[in-house]
Specification:
This is Alpha/beta fold hydrolase. With 292 residues, this protein is an alpha/beta fold. The chain is built from 10 helices and 8 strands. The chain has a single domain, classed as Alpha/Beta hydrolase fold, catalytic domain (Rossmann fold, 3-Layer(aba) Sandwich).
């Protein structure tokens, strides 16, 4: 009987060790896939009237990181910088680019560092990416067709965090649309992995530490407060598990706008154009029309 008890305890302990190892490995692999995202090929959009004049560009951020993208001159003097999400590239926002271009807006679409055709190996939840968005702004402001007083930005998810932080740092962004980005990355990490306790968090934090990623460097509420009296449109899907209503409301409580939010009925993490094919372009265009 005693031998059976000891055997059971040993097997139970071994099982706990196996579970702990599984949690740690799963946590590390999950974060590694975000810090070192897989690259997707960049395919040029088909020839069509909306993108007539689209040209390849390359520019550098303040650290010298080379970024690749496309530039479309505006017809109305105003320009929007479009910033994609994690593991995407500049082609992710081509549907938005199309209706903006048809309305006369110029565009800069570019691959964030470690994505698409841009240099870099590490993604930082919008921290270093914010400087890359500012570099795109620098490029746009130098173009002769662009009125530097009429530059805005639209960013999705990782791009949303990047745009929000960039606009907080650089007042040349006159209006920004922030999509699917409201919960601070540090809080999202806690929500995603914290239920496993230290075994869920420590391996993830170690992956980020080794990559030089500061998960606390992106603070949407603080960035939003820095945008007081500059226009912001927050967009998220009603079915998006990563952007609860309360997180959007928290951002809106950080100061005074003109700020507004729109929950896209039936949409998840993105796919707003599919969920609201008429209302989504109408709202985005109306926003930029008012403020750019």
């Amino acid at each position: 009987m005693k031998r059976l008890l000891v055997t059971g305890l040993l097997l139970g302990g071994l099982g706990l060790l196996v579970l702990a190892a599984w949690v740690a490995v799963r946590s590390a692999r999950y974060i590694a896939s975000e810090v070192y995202p897989p690259r997707r090929p960049v395919e040029r959009p088909p020839e069509e009237a909306a993108f007539a004049g689209l040209r390849d560009i390359a520019f550098q951020d303040a650290t010298g990181l080379q970024l690749k993208g496309w530039y479309l001159p505006p017809k109305n003097g105003a320009l929007v910088v479009l910033v994609h999400g994690l593991s995407g590239n500049r082609t992710q926002l081509l549907p938005e680019a199309r209706f903006l271009a048809e309305a006369g807006y110029g565009l800069v679409l570019f691959d964030l560092g470690a994505h698409g055709q841009s240099a870099g190996t590490v993604s930082t939840y919008g921290d270093r990416e914010a400087a890359q968005v500012v570099a795109a702004l620098d490029f746009a402001a130098l173009q002769p067709e662009v009125d530097a007083r009429r530059i805005g930005a639209l960013g999705f998810s990782l791009g949303g965090y990047s745009v929000l932080k960039a606009a907080a740092q650089d007042a040349r962004f006159k209006a920004v649309v922030v999509e699917a980005a409201a919960v601070a990355p540090a809080q999202a990490l806690q929500d995603e992995l914290g239920h496993w306790g230290p075994l869920g968090l420590w391996p993830a934090l170690e992956v980020m530490r080794r990559a030089g990623v500061d998960v606390n460097a992106v603070r949407p509420a603080q960035h939003m407060a820095a945008l007081a009296r500059r226009p912001v449109l927050l967009i998220a899907g009603t079915e998006d598990p990563w952007v609860p209503e309360a997180s959007l409301d928290d951002l809106l409580r950080q100061g005074q706008g003109p700020w507004e939010k729109w929950r896209v009925s039936g949409a998840g993490h993105g796919d707003y154009l599919q969920a609201a094919p008429e209302e989504y372009p109408r709202r985005v265009l109306a926003f930029f029309s008012r403020f750019l």
